[in-house]
Amino acid sequence: MGLPIITSAATGRYRLSLGDLVLGETSKAVLVEESGHPSRLYFPRADINMALLTPSTRKSKCPWKGEARYFSVGDAENVIWSYERPKGSAAAIAGYLAVYPDITVEDV
Question: Most buried of the four, 21, 29, 78, 105, by CB within 10 Å?
Fold first, then answer.
């Protein structure tokens, strides 16, 4: 039995940036709540400038969500990740992006 994962549409509009570099803005973020972890926003690729992201060779596995692949932005390595084919209740985040604190997420 896996940890419960709950996804819902996030309210608000968010801007993602690294320093002065704006990566994108969206009002279509998904909020993921997972037992034992802080809530996290995931952002649709369509609203992020993917040309600014470089795919990394890093991958990780979550027993409840599946395999994550990572992206770097400039010199900031592996600061964004995505589940391409998430498992079960995490299906709503397929292809969405999550970020480490190196990336600033602000309400706009």
Answer: 29
